[in-house]
Design a protein that fits this description.
466 residues; RNA-binding; BirA Bifunctional Protein, domain 2; five-stranded mixed barrel; OB fold (Dihydrolipoamide Acetyltransferase, E2P); elongated; alpha+beta; 30% helix; 25% strand; 2 domains; eight-stranded mixed β-sheet
Length: 466
RNA sequence: UCCCCGAUAGCUCAAUGGUAGAGCGUCCGGCUGUUAACCGGCAGGUUGUAGGUUCGAGUCCUACUCGGGGAGCCA
């Protein structure tokens, strides 16, 4: 007897095999002819295996008839060609072992469809549904592809710190980390906190980006990438923001902006291609049941086979000014583009991923390389239809004098960044990198509308359940 | 944080200010190589919370809580 997965048992090659299966009951149908159909899922694939439990099984009345939705079980039997429609194979059980029951009265998941909002309240049970099983498998495939893509290209996987003491990483509100007893501080109404007594002898925070640290390794080892959790304490309540999310940040020495853009495009295409190739059943599900227009697979295939649009910020502004589309916010060179502007470009005007680059320096951070025109920096954003910004990156300013000038301009203390500045002081090189939001990629390839449904346990303002 | 919308049975939703309903699910029965199974029946409710208006509030008003859509911030 061979222990196999539901995925294997569903293939015709399994026919004739004597097998054991382990999983959970999705549904059971009884026949008065004296047997039951049990659909079993074990997470190995979207589809279930249909198990035929004959009434002659010794525990048929006592156990099999009590198997309800959600119950766990082990099945021993023979894989045979299915007599019914809808599946190639089924398992003729010789033995059914009920492992854990699920009271039908109180088990929240029903055989019917639940709304994604309701399932979010049952985050501990939602991986047992078709949708969340599929999301989990696609998420896994994307993570696998991420490592494969960079490893194949000679990138080194580096781990940047989760806790940081620099409160000036620039990317927004940070979560403070402390071992101080806040209740005591509040009770004593202490106005001034002496961080000498805190764990790190100074205020510390959860990282909002590993970029600055990744640059140090890129400027020694050439090509590196980080892949880990990131924390932003912004009070963002949207379908594409999380307080805790995962980010991939490659950083490459001797790369300039065009190299950076090419890498980003190759990277995304690889992720899309792999998902289409390796998650066909799940992708067909997203295409049919999640994507409103049922064109998800078609769209991804088109994207994989075409070049991304590359557009300078200035060209983008010209297009937006020239088009006859009515915007709520006016377009003006020097202003950051609004969501509606980005959406127009990627969804309406080009209907394709768009890489925007060379932004006005006044709206971008200090570390971006300044162009000779004195007005723009070599930043880039990759926009995709439906999700918007999926990647943000830049060529880094590697010239010591320009960097110091920029920091002064933005009233940042060079002393605080002494080690970052040192990279420009000793053996500086042009380099570049970007950050890709993992959950946003998953949203894009699955058509899932809310980012809270593509991470197992979403953390958002006011919500930290499970 | 701002704007808009919503909260009624386990789930999805109805209900001109006048006795709170349906479908699905559960349970019981029937039928069937079934597959969102099907047919019949029973049970299931302090209408998100706290106030207010009214003879009377699921319905109108206020505040709050939670959820959704959009905006800002960004990945």
């Amino acid at each position: 007897m061979e222990l196999i997965s539901v995925r294997e048992a569903r293939t015709e090659q399994a026919i004739g095999k004597s097998v054991e299966l382990r999983g959970w009951v999705r549904t059971r149908r009884d026949s008065k002819a004296g047997f039951s159909f049990i659909e079993v899922n074990d997470g190995s694939c979207l589809g279930n295996i249909q198990v035929i439990a004959d009434g002659k099984l010794e525990n048929y009345e006592t156990d099999v008839k009590g198997l309800t939705v959600g119950a766990s079980l082990r099945v021993e039997g023979q894989v045979v060609a299915s007599g019914g429609k809808g599946q190639a194979t089924e398992v003729q059980a010789t033995r059914v072992i009920a492992v854990g029951g699920a009271d039908a009265e109180s088990y929240p998941l029903q055989k019917k469809q639940h709304t994604l909002e309701k399932l979010r309240e049952w985050a501990h049970l939602r991986p047992r549904t078709n949708t969340f099983g599929a999301v989990a498998r696609v998420r896994n495939q994307i993570c696998r592809s991420i490592h494969q893509f960079y490893q194949e290209r000679g990138f080194l996987y580096v781990h940047t710190p989760i806790i940081t003491a620099s409160d000036c990483e620039g990317a927004g509100e940070m979560f403070q980390v402390t071992t101080l007893d806040l209740a005591t501080i509040a009770k004593r109404e202490m106005a001034n906190i002496d961080y000498k007594f805190d764990f790190f002898d100074r205020p510390s925070y959860l990282t909002v980006s590993g970029q600055l640290e990744a640059e140090t390794y890129a400027c020694a080892l050439g090509k590196v990438y980080t892949f880990g959790p990131t924390f932003r304490a912004e009070n963002s309540n949207t379908s594409r923001h999380l307080a805790e999310f995962w980010m991939i940040e490659p950083e490459m020495a001797f790369f300039e902006l065009p190299d950076n853009m090419q890498l980003a495009e190759d990277f995304l295409k690889r992720l899309f291609r792999d998902v289409l190739e390796h998650c066909q059943e799940d992708m067909a599900f997203f295409n049919e049941r999640i994507d409103e227009s049922k064109t998800l697979i078609e769209r991804l295939q088109k994207i994989v086979n075409a070049d991304f649009v590359r557009l300078s910020y200035t060209e983008a502004v010209d297009i937006l000014l020239a088009c006859d589309h009515k915007f709520d916010y006016p377009v003006k060179w020097g202003m950051d583009l609004q969501s509606e502007h980005e959406r127009y470009l990627t969804e309406k005007h080009f209907d394709s991923p768009v890489i925007l680059y060379n932004y006005p320096r006044i709206i971008k951070p200090f570390y971006m390389y300044c162009n000779d025109d004195g007005k723009t920096v070599r930043g880039m954003d990759v926009l995709v239809p439906g999700v918007g910004e999926i990647i943000g990156g830049s060529q880094r300013e590697h010239r010591l004098d320009v960097l110091l000038e920029r920091m002064a301009e933005m009233q940042l203390s060079a002393d605080d960044y002494w080690w970052y500045v040192d990279l420009r002081r000793y053996g500086t090189v042009p380099h570049a990198g970007f950050g890709l939001g993992l959950e946003r990629v998953i949203q894009f390839v699955t058509s899932m509308g809310n980012i809270r449904d593509v991470i197992p346990f979403p953390r958002t303002p006011g919500s930290c359940d499970f």
